[in-house]
Amino acid sequence: MKCQHQISNSSGVDNNRIFNIINQMKVSVIVPVFNEIHDIEAILRAVAGVNIDSEIIVVDDYSTDGTRDYLRTKKGIKTIFHNKNMGKGAAIRSGLGITQGRVVIIQDADLEYSPGEYPKLLTPIQEASAKVVYGSRVMGKGEFLALSYIANRFLTLLTNLLYKSHLTDFEERRKNHRVTDNLQR
Prior knowledge:
Blueprint: H1 15-22, E1 27-33, H2 40-48, E2 54-60, H3 67-72, E3 78-81, H4 88-96, E4 103-106, H5 118-126, E5 132-134, H6 146-163, E6 175-178
Protein backbone atom coordinates (compact mmCIF):
# COMPACT_ATOMS: atom_id res chain seq x y z
CA MET A 1 0.00 0.00 0.00
CA LYS A 2 1.49 3.38 -0.97
CA CYS A 3 1.12 6.55 1.03
CA GLN A 4 -1.10 9.12 -0.66
CA HIS A 5 0.62 12.19 0.79
CA GLN A 6 3.29 14.17 -1.03
CA ILE A 7 6.54 15.25 0.54
CA SER A 8 8.05 18.40 -0.89
CA ASN A 9 11.58 17.36 -1.56
CA SER A 10 14.33 19.51 -3.02
CA SER A 11 17.06 16.92 -2.48
CA GLY A 12 16.19 14.82 -5.53
CA VAL A 13 15.23 11.76 -3.45
CA ASP A 14 12.59 9.55 -5.08
CA ASN A 15 9.31 10.05 -3.16
CA ASN A 16 7.95 6.64 -4.25
CA ARG A 17 10.98 4.98 -2.67
CA ILE A 18 10.39 6.94 0.55
CA PHE A 19 6.72 5.88 0.70
CA ASN A 20 7.63 2.23 0.09
CA ILE A 21 10.13 2.40 2.96
CA ILE A 22 7.61 4.03 5.30
CA ASN A 23 4.94 1.47 4.53
CA GLN A 24 7.23 -1.39 5.58
CA MET A 25 6.99 -0.48 9.28
CA LYS A 26 4.14 -0.39 11.74
CA VAL A 27 3.64 2.91 13.53
CA SER A 28 1.97 3.34 16.92
CA VAL A 29 0.33 6.75 17.28
CA ILE A 30 -0.33 7.68 20.90
CA VAL A 31 -2.90 10.44 21.39
CA PRO A 32 -3.04 11.64 25.01
CA VAL A 33 -6.34 13.45 25.62
CA PHE A 34 -7.91 15.47 28.40
CA ASN A 35 -11.24 17.23 27.81
CA GLU A 36 -10.89 17.24 24.01
CA ILE A 37 -14.53 16.65 23.05
CA HIS A 38 -14.42 19.48 20.50
CA ASP A 39 -11.30 18.16 18.70
CA ILE A 40 -11.31 14.39 19.25
CA GLU A 41 -13.36 13.41 16.20
CA ALA A 42 -11.27 15.57 13.87
CA ILE A 43 -7.94 14.31 15.21
CA LEU A 44 -8.95 10.66 14.99
CA ARG A 45 -10.17 11.17 11.43
CA ALA A 46 -6.91 12.96 10.51
CA VAL A 47 -4.69 10.27 12.05
CA ALA A 48 -6.67 7.45 10.45
CA GLY A 49 -6.51 9.30 7.12
CA VAL A 50 -2.74 8.97 6.88
CA ASN A 51 -2.21 5.95 4.69
CA ILE A 52 0.45 4.10 6.71
CA ASP A 53 0.35 0.86 8.67
CA SER A 54 -0.55 2.19 12.09
CA GLU A 55 -2.38 1.59 15.30
CA ILE A 56 -4.07 4.46 17.11
CA ILE A 57 -3.84 4.45 20.90
CA VAL A 58 -5.90 7.08 22.70
CA VAL A 59 -5.23 7.60 26.40
CA ASP A 60 -7.96 9.55 28.16
CA ASP A 61 -6.57 11.23 31.27
CA TYR A 62 -9.90 11.36 33.13
CA SER A 63 -11.80 13.76 30.88
CA THR A 64 -15.04 15.18 32.26
CA ASP A 65 -16.43 16.85 29.12
CA GLY A 66 -17.81 13.81 27.26
CA THR A 67 -14.56 12.73 25.62
CA ARG A 68 -14.60 9.41 27.50
CA ASP A 69 -18.15 8.65 26.39
CA TYR A 70 -17.26 9.45 22.78
CA LEU A 71 -14.17 7.21 22.88
CA ARG A 72 -16.21 4.29 24.21
CA THR A 73 -18.22 4.34 20.97
CA LYS A 74 -15.18 4.29 18.66
CA LYS A 75 -14.13 1.10 16.90
CA GLY A 76 -10.71 0.46 15.39
CA ILE A 77 -8.69 2.27 18.05
CA LYS A 78 -7.14 1.16 21.31
CA THR A 79 -8.26 3.16 24.32
CA ILE A 80 -6.96 3.48 27.85
CA PHE A 81 -8.99 5.31 30.48
CA HIS A 82 -7.22 6.69 33.53
CA ASN A 83 -9.19 6.56 36.80
CA LYS A 84 -7.85 9.98 37.80
CA ASN A 85 -6.04 12.81 36.08
CA MET A 86 -2.34 11.99 36.11
CA GLY A 87 -0.95 14.34 33.44
CA LYS A 88 0.28 14.03 29.88
CA GLY A 89 3.48 12.18 30.81
CA ALA A 90 1.52 9.44 32.56
CA ALA A 91 -0.83 9.20 29.57
CA ILE A 92 2.12 8.73 27.23
CA ARG A 93 3.65 6.08 29.51
CA SER A 94 0.32 4.24 29.59
CA GLY A 95 0.15 4.29 25.81
CA LEU A 96 3.73 3.07 25.47
CA GLY A 97 2.76 0.05 27.55
CA ILE A 98 0.57 -1.35 24.78
CA THR A 99 2.33 -0.23 21.59
CA GLN A 100 3.02 -2.84 18.94
CA GLY A 101 4.64 -0.65 16.30
CA ARG A 102 8.33 -0.35 15.47
CA VAL A 103 8.02 3.44 15.71
CA VAL A 104 5.97 5.58 18.10
CA ILE A 105 4.54 9.01 17.32
CA ILE A 106 3.08 11.20 20.07
CA GLN A 107 0.18 13.22 18.58
CA ASP A 108 -1.41 16.02 20.58
CA ALA A 109 -5.19 16.04 20.24
CA ASP A 110 -5.49 19.77 19.58
CA LEU A 111 -4.50 19.43 15.88
CA GLU A 112 -1.71 21.98 16.28
CA TYR A 113 0.38 19.61 14.16
CA SER A 114 -0.94 17.80 11.10
CA PRO A 115 -0.81 14.01 10.94
CA GLY A 116 -0.21 14.52 7.21
CA GLU A 117 3.39 15.28 8.17
CA TYR A 118 4.02 11.74 9.47
CA PRO A 119 5.89 10.64 6.32
CA LYS A 120 8.40 13.49 6.83
CA LEU A 121 8.92 12.39 10.43
CA LEU A 122 9.20 8.69 9.64
CA THR A 123 11.62 8.80 6.72
CA PRO A 124 14.83 9.55 8.72
CA ILE A 125 14.06 6.72 11.14
CA GLN A 126 13.34 4.16 8.45
CA GLU A 127 16.44 5.17 6.50
CA ALA A 128 18.45 4.74 9.74
CA SER A 129 19.76 8.30 9.59
CA ALA A 130 18.07 9.08 12.94
CA LYS A 131 16.87 7.22 16.01
CA VAL A 132 14.62 10.07 17.14
CA VAL A 133 12.99 12.86 15.13
CA TYR A 134 11.72 16.10 16.66
CA GLY A 135 9.64 18.65 14.81
CA SER A 136 10.58 22.30 14.86
CA ARG A 137 8.37 25.35 14.80
CA VAL A 138 11.46 27.52 14.40
CA MET A 139 12.47 25.96 11.09
CA GLY A 140 8.93 26.09 9.71
CA LYS A 141 6.17 28.60 9.99
CA GLY A 142 5.58 28.33 13.73
CA GLU A 143 4.11 31.35 15.44
CA PHE A 144 5.42 32.64 18.75
CA LEU A 145 4.80 35.56 21.05
CA ALA A 146 8.03 37.58 21.23
CA LEU A 147 8.76 36.66 24.85
CA SER A 148 7.94 32.98 24.23
CA TYR A 149 10.26 32.93 21.23
CA ILE A 150 13.15 34.41 23.23
CA ALA A 151 12.58 31.99 26.12
CA ASN A 152 12.37 29.05 23.71
CA ARG A 153 15.59 30.01 21.95
CA PHE A 154 17.39 30.40 25.31
CA LEU A 155 16.19 27.02 26.62
CA THR A 156 17.04 25.37 23.31
CA LEU A 157 20.57 26.81 23.42
CA LEU A 158 20.99 25.68 27.03
CA THR A 159 19.73 22.17 26.21
CA ASN A 160 22.06 21.90 23.21
CA LEU A 161 25.05 22.97 25.32
CA LEU A 162 24.23 20.62 28.21
CA TYR A 163 23.44 17.56 26.11
CA LYS A 164 25.57 18.21 23.02
CA SER A 165 22.43 18.05 20.91
CA HIS A 166 21.29 19.93 17.80
CA LEU A 167 17.69 20.84 18.59
CA THR A 168 16.09 23.93 17.07
CA ASP A 169 12.94 23.99 19.21
CA PHE A 170 13.29 22.72 22.78
CA GLU A 171 9.56 22.90 23.51
CA GLU A 172 8.45 21.14 20.33
CA ARG A 173 5.73 18.57 20.93
CA ARG A 174 6.11 16.59 17.71
CA LYS A 175 8.29 13.60 18.45
CA ASN A 176 8.72 10.10 17.17
CA HIS A 177 11.23 7.40 17.87
CA ARG A 178 12.12 3.84 17.06
CA VAL A 179 10.97 1.33 19.67
CA THR A 180 13.88 -0.44 21.34
CA ASP A 181 14.28 -2.96 24.12
CA ASN A 182 15.25 -0.06 26.39
CA LEU A 183 11.86 1.57 25.91
CA GLN A 184 9.74 0.60 28.87
CA ARG A 185 6.58 -1.18 27.75
